[in-house]
Amino acid sequence: MILSELLSYETLRVIWWLLLGVLLIGFALTDGFDMGVGALIPFVGRSDVERRVAINTVGPVWEGNQVWFILGGGAIFAAWPPLYAVSFSGFYLAMFVVLAAFIVRPVAFKYRSKRDAAAWRSAWDWALFASGAVPALLFGVAVGNVIQGVPFHFTDDLHSIYEGVWYAKFIGLLDPFSILAGVVSLAMLVMHGGAWLTLKTEGPVQRRARSIGSVAALVAVAAYVGAGVWLALGIEGFRIVGDYATGGPSNPLHFQVERSASWLSAYADRPWIAIAPALGILGGLLTFAGLRAGREVSTLLFSKLSILGVISSVGLTMFPFIMPSSSDPRSSLTVWNSSSSHLTLFIMLVCALIFMPLILAYTAWVYKVLWGKVTEADVTENSHSVY
């Protein structure tokens, strides 16, 4: 346990905050283009064969990509129990919709080509569209709500209570700023899907993917900049006041938190974090340029860079907050007051250091094996094509 003693409680908390960000970004980078392609299927494919081409670019990899979503949920459960309790109860209905969409996706993949009927296949194509567009939108809506603060509080015995009637737990999420954040997320993943289809297809599907993806890139950048301006002018942030222990016990009620002038004051305190939004904007613009110019590999890399910057900017701007409370700021969850124990974080870190490299190596191997374009001949002449 010598290593455990060398890694302080404070250090482990920061490490697991970073790892949670890595898992969420990994999910957006991989399953993100799956959702983007799903949202694009009805528009990039005008014939059954063209839609099958688009589907077969993600059909072999979507299950592996979705592992990152499961890992992210597991990390929240094990490393940040209060965050898991509040988010999975407060966002219950929204998460139910997301999970329903994720259940529909594999069903659509498996059943779409079981009948050679235009209406049957069109219905499943629109199901794939919904299973991509709806989660992409709701993930951004959730982030918009977290930035503004979530209406929950803890009782004296640390029982979490999410305020409001049951239907407000979904309808109440759809305020204007959160919808704008949802537009950022949806446009960003459609851009990512367009970049993926540009790499993996050719002909009409590729041309349409470039056209739609380039528009989505501009929408993502414009909406992201608009959200930043709104954040600066109209949304209060949160800050911890007084003395507090970064390595103390996890108890949100031991902290004093108040609303502050702006989240963007973090950029005055830590100027280096400005690199994140800069990467988000620059990556989006370079993706637009790459799509218009017909570049492939570099365009997908620029799209990933944009996603990395956008998601990182949220975490870095809010640090150390991970879920502030709008109804009772003192109940806000931070990196310093809502983690599991020192021993739990250490054991989980050892497991992560063992298994994460294996997951990354396997993922890299799969993409190497599946490298290359999906053509119309592949889906019509190859008996192994089931989508």
Are there runs of 5+ residues with pLDDT below 50, and where? Answer: none
What strand line-up does the widest sheet have? 1-2
Number of discrete domains? 1
Structural class: mainly alpha
How many β-strands, per DSSP?
Answer: 6
Q: Counting H and I runs of at least 4 residues, what is the number of helices? A: 16
Mean pLDDT: 89
Order of helices and strands: HHHHHHHHEEHHHEEHHHEEHH
Radius of gyration: 22 Å
Biggest sheet layout: 2 strands, antiparallel
Summarize this structure briefly.
This protein is mainly alpha-helical. The protein is built from 16 helices and six strands. β1 and β2 (160-162) form a beta hairpin.
Could you describe the 3D structure shown?
This protein is mainly alpha-helical and 387 residues long. The protein has one domain. 70% of the residues lie in helices and 5% in strands. It is built from 16 helices and 6 strands. The protein has helices at 2-6, 9-44, 48-58, 62-65, 67-79, 81-90, 92-111, 118-148, 168-171, 176-200, 203-234, 266-269, 275-293, 297-318, 342-369, 376-381, and strands at 152-154, 160-162, 237-241, 256-260, 321-323, 333-334. A two-stranded antiparallel sheet has the order 1-2. It has a two-stranded antiparallel sheet with strand order 3-4. The chain has a two-stranded antiparallel ribbon with strand order 5-6. A hairpin with a 5-residue loop joins strand 1 (152-154) and strand 2 (160-162). The radius of gyration is 22 Å and the shape is globular.
